[in-house]
């Protein structure tokens, strides 16, 4: 653990985290403009998890959501635990070699969606009554109106929208990592497990 913590404070990792936070914020703003039922705000978090490991990925998610909570909407800060889970799971999956092929990246997206659902559903229900102002609220409303309970409506919506979002995110990260020049990626220990 000490080496992971030490690695987190290396200049190259801190720089990567800063760039990733900007990528996440831009994705969030695109989502806010077009009101898609997907989020596009964790590409940077997954990228850091893949390149620098689960601890760095979790820190990236946490900082992104805290910053978004300050400058965009307090709702984002409430979901900081979800963002941490995204970064940690992405890093663990990369460590296990699940970013070597496009289909492994897609499976990783599903695993991330399942893990974050466990954290996001209670936050969405108990803090916000199931409605957060995102494009996915329509799906929650529809499922509730056709007889689903609030819990099942939120759980199905969170998992469903996040499967789409996290599979797309993981595939984007997989493509980015494969296209990055060697001089930018050398020294990231987790990357060696992610390239075939």
Describe the structure.
With 196 residues, the protein is an all-alpha fold. It has a single domain (2-194), classed as Arp2/3 complex 21 kDa subunit ARPC3. It is built from 11 helices and no strands. It has helices at residues 2-8, 11-34, 43-52, 54-71, 74-78, 80-95, 102-128, 137-145, 150-179, 182-185, 191-194. The longest helix is centred in the last third of the chain and has 30 residues, at 150-179. The protein starts with a helix and ends with a helix.
| Uncertain parts | none
Q: CATH class, please?
A: Mainly Alpha
Tell me the radius of gyration: 16 Å
**What is the number of domains?**
1
* Content-based structural category: mainly alpha
Sheet having the most strands: none
Order of helices and strands: HHHHHHHHHHH
Number of strands: 0
Second CATH tier, the architecture: Orthogonal Bundle
Distance separating the two termini: 26 Å
Give the CATH topology.
Arp2/3 complex 21 kDa subunit ARPC3
Strand content: under 5%
Our count of helices gives 11
Shape: globular
Core attributes:
globular; 11 helices; 79% helix; 196 residues; mainly alpha; Arp2/3 complex 21 kDa subunit ARPC3
Write the layout of secondary structure elements.
Layout: H1 2-8, H2 11-34, H3 43-52, H4 54-71, H5 74-78, H6 80-95, H7 102-128, H8 137-145, H9 150-179, H10 182-185, H11 191-194
Helix pairs in contact: 2-3, 2-4, 3-4, 3-6, 3-9, 4-6, 6-7, 7-9, 8-9
Concise synopsis of the structure shown:
The protein is mainly alpha-helical and 196 residues long.
């Amino acid at each position: 653990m000490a080496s992971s913590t030490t690695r987190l404070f290396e200049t190259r990792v801190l720089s990567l985290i800063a760039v990733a936070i900007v990528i996440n914020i831009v994705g969030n703003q695109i989502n806010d403009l077009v009101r898609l039922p997907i989020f596009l705000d964790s590409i940077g978090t997954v990228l850091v998890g893949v390149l620098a490991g689960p601890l760095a990925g979790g820190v990236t998610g946490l900082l992104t959501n805290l910053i978004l909570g300050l400058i965009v909407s307090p709702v984002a800060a409430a979901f900081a635990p979800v963002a941490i889970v995204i970064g940690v799971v992405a890093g663990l999956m990369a460590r296990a070699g699940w970013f070597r092929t496009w289909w492994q990246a897609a499976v990783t997206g599903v695993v991330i969606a399942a893990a974050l659902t466990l954290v996001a559903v209670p936050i969405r229900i108990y803090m916000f009554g199931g409605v957060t102002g995102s494009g996915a609220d329509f799906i929650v409303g529809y499922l509730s109106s056709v007889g689903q309970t609030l819990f099942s409506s939120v759980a199905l919506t969170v998992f469903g929208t996040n499967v789409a979002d996290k599979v797309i995110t993981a595939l984007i990260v997989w493509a980015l990592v494969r296209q990055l020049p060697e001089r930018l990626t050398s020294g990231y220990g987790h990357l060696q497990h992610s390239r075939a």
